[in-house]
Amino acid sequence: MRKYFILLILLLAPSLFAQDMKSLYQRADSFGERYTNKFYYGVSDIAPTDEPATFWYVTRTPRGQEFLVINPELQSVTAAFDHEQLAAALTKETDKDTEAYKLPFRKISFQKADNKMYFSIGKDNYTCNLTDYTLTKQTEPESPPYYWGTVYKEDAKQKVTSPDNKKEAFIREGNLWVTDLETGKSTKISNKGSVYEYYSSNIYWSPNSKMIACCRYSPVPTRKLLMISSSPKDQLQPTTEEYDYVKPGDPLPIRRPVLFLLDENKSIECEVPEVDKQYNLSNIRWDEQNRFFTFDFNKRGHQQYIVYAVDAPSGKLRTMIHEESPTFIYYSRLEKRWLPQSDEVLWISERDGWRHIYLYDVLTGNVKKQLTKGEWVAKSIVRVDEKNNTVLFKACGMDKGEDPYLEKLYSLNIKNGKITPLTPENANHSITFSKDYQYMADYYSRVDMAPVFVIRSVKTGKVVYKPEQQPDVSKTVEAGWRMPEVFSAKGRDGQTDIWGIIMRPPNYDPAKKYPVVEYIYAGPHDSHVPKSFSIWHWSIELTELGFITVIIDGMGTANRSKAFHDVCWKNLKDAGFPDRIIWLKAAANRYPEMDIERMGIYGCSAGGQSSTGALLFHPEFYKVGVSACGCQDNRMDKIWWNEQWMGYPVGKEYEECSNVVNAHKLQGKLMLILGELDNNVDPSSTLQVVDELIKHNKEFEFVMLPGERHTMGGKYGERKRRDFLIKHLMGMDAPEWNK
Question: In sequence order, what are the residues at sequence separation of 6 or more whose Cβ sits closer than 8 angstroms to the Cβ of residue 332?
Answer without folding.
Answer: 525, 644
